[in-house]
Amino acid sequence: MSTWPKFRASRWIDTSPAAMEREQATIVYGIQTQTEKGAKWAHCHENGEPLFFESAELASDAIDRLWSATRSARSDGETEGGAQSRREPE
Length: 90
Hints:
It is built from two helices and six strands. By secondary structure, the protein is α+β, with helices and mostly antiparallel strands. It has one domain (6-75). The strands form two sheets. Strands 1, 2, 3 and 6 form a four-stranded antiparallel β-sheet that branches. The two termini are 22 Å apart.
């Protein structure tokens, strides 16, 4: 049985102005979500800013926080069903 939403961390090349001035590319980890079966993966944002992290561990911690918020919302009756953590490989 699958539970939605699903979250995953992906590697990205940092294209911020500061990163573009560096000699070597900088890797960041972004979080994506899929809200239902067959839906496209979408970038997660918080307060209008994309969720990017300096390490896979920090991205994983953020996914845990998102799952916690999802479970809390469901227990408050905002949505139906239970959350099941499923991380997709990079």
